[in-house]
Amino acid sequence: MYIPQKNELYEDLSVTENIKFSLLHLNHKADAQNRLEEVYTMLPVLKSKHKQTADRLSGGERKLLSLAMVLANKPKILLYDEPLAGLSSQNIETVLRWLNHLKQNGTTLVLIEHRIKELIGLADRIIGLKLGTLTTENLNDLETIKQFLV
Fold first, then answer.
1. What is the full DSSP assignment across 28-57?
2. Model-level pTM?
């Protein structure tokens, strides 16, 4: 699955409807409902806004809704562009926690992110690109990252 930097949501649909729409491929409504409840357990802030349309959510809430749509689908591979951009520190912790949850449950994560330091505990491998060219590999500790960022 792919989550672009600009959240692609159905603006006129509620939080619940957006998540359910992402689950239309499931054969049974009960499966979709179970996954919806799982997502609301993982991201309770969205449960409290379940009737709100996507266009009325804050930027951080929209990013969480995009993540919820992915979590509901239990992907094997996730390509996520700028998962931490524009998030509050609380929402950053939430996103990192659920990215780690996906990783621990076997999902392969490919993240494009400027905030490298936050990924140290999550990433198995960090590479640096500049204008699309590989500049360094194996950025895996804070000291190496600090040298790279200078």
1. -HHHHHHHHHHHHHH-HHHHTTTTSBGGGS
2. 0.79
